[in-house]
Amino acid sequence: MRSFQQIPELRTHLNALREEQLVIGFVPTMGALHDGHIALIRRAVTECDRTVVSIFVNPIQFGPGEDFDRYPRDLAQDSRICQEEGVDALFVPAVGEMFPSADGDGPAESPTRVHVPALEDILEGAARPGHLSGVTTICAKLFNIVQPRRAYFGQKDYQQLIAIQRMVADLCMPITVVPVATVREPDGLALSSRNVYLSPEERPRAVALSAALKEGERLYAAGERNADTLREAVRDVLVRAGLSAIEYIEVADPRTMVRLNHIDDDAVLLAAVRIGALRLIDNVLLGITLNQHLRRL
Ligand code: AMP
């Protein structure tokens, strides 16, 4: 595995691979890799000739007062994991490499931004202003640098996945976006680099988020199609478990994320809660699998 900090060197390496007609797969991450990231990497390594992983804690997707400075970072361990998983190239740019304006301690900024307006002011977009365009902008930049044939994203960050799929389709980027199912702890908690922030007291309570969504799944399987009823059932489980700092519980169209009152066909059930200093997000698909989702988008 080769490691790159500079864009031109990575480009030279990848151009040579493309000349050999090799299919490049790409897994963008913010590091502190866990089994969720590893599932994406394994899928890419299986499906592509060469896999590129980027590790970049992207300042423009963090809001003021969010955890950019204390986001977990462990490059030595991440490199070991990538090496073991058969990654071809690790891209670890400094902030100034991705945002030259940040050289000399200026704030990181991108004078050009990519927006997906329909998704930016709802759910995660409403809770974290600027976050979603920070994600789409950095992914557009990384896609232009790496020029992958396939790029892998987790279902865990569902709205991000949909925004990236929208961006790739609308801007005619020649990339297949591959969604990968959420990897969970044995008790159901979705893996996240930020889970290390959970205190021993908070950790058992955190499981209620996935349990609440499971209750929604159970009701849907039993025939419930009223979105209010599903939202209320999820809320009940959360409140009973002491997770009452609820940011949103939503039932939405799984392709557009438009809010649904009634589920005619399929849906995505999403929730975000606060627990201590941490925000947890999670989601489940109702009446549609991730593979069908990929085909029907
Ligand atoms: P991050 O490093 O948090 O920006 O995540 C990088 C990629 O890994 C994104 O596509 C995430 O959706 C994905 N990811 C994060 N956690 C999980 C998980 N528990 N299961 C599957 N994919 C995940």
Blueprint (SSEs and pairs):
Blueprint: E1 2-4, H1 7-19, E2 24-29, H2 35-47, E3 50-55, H3 75-85, E4 89-91, H4 95-98, H5 117-120, H6 124-127, H7 131-146, E5 150-154, H8 158-170, E6 176-180, H9 202-221, H10 227-240, E7 246-252, E8 267-275, E9 278-286, H11 290-296
The protein binds adenosine monophosphate.
Characterization of this structure:
By secondary structure, the protein is of the alpha/beta class. It has helices at residues 7-19, 35-47, 75-85, 95-98, 117-120, 124-127, 131-146, 158-170, 202-221, 227-240, 290-296; strands at residues 2-4, 24-29, 50-55, 89-91, 150-154, 176-180, 246-252, 267-275, 278-286. The strands form 2 sheets. It has a 6-stranded parallel sheet with strand order 1-4-3-2-5-6, with helices on both faces. The chain has a 3-stranded antiparallel sheet with strand order 7-8-9, covered by helices on one side. Helix 2 links the parallel strand 2 and strand 3 (50-55). It is globular. Adenosine monophosphate (AMP) is lined by residues 29-30, 36-37, 39-40, 153-154, 156-157, 180, 182-183, 190-193.
